[in-house]
Fold this protein.
Amino acid sequence: MSYIEESLSAGEKVEGLFKLHWFAWAPMAMWLVLGIPTLGLTWLIALYEFLRLRYLEQGVTNKRVILKRGIISRKTEEMKLTSIETVEIDQGIFGRIFGFGTVKITGRGISDFVFKGIDDPLSVKRQIESVSNPVG
C-alpha cells in the first residue's frame, strides 16, 4: 500500500496520483549507458536513481495535495486544498513537445512545493483545481 493511501484521514479519498513522464527516467538510463564499460560506481548511481524515482509518490486527495520522497527515510510535503493560492506550470520547449513539465503549487504564507518531471502537467493542474474548487 502506498504512503498516500496509508495516510488518508476519515472521509478522505484519493482523487488522483500523478505519474512521472518517461523523460524523468532518462538520467537513470544515461548512468546505465555510461556504466557499461566500467560496471562500477555508475551502476550504483543508476540503482539509486531508479529507487529514488520508484519510491516517489505525488497525488491529490479530496482534502490535500501530497508529495512523498524517500527510499528508506521518508520526507513528505502536504498542503491542504483550502490553503492553495496558485497552481503554476513550467514547460520548456522539450516539455511542450513531449508532454512533460513542472507543476508548482503555492499556498498561503511562504509554503510551496514542486512536482518535477510530471506527465501532462496541464491535466495535473486541472485535477488539483477541480478538487480544490468544486463546481456546484
Observations:
- The chain has a mean pLDDT of 87.
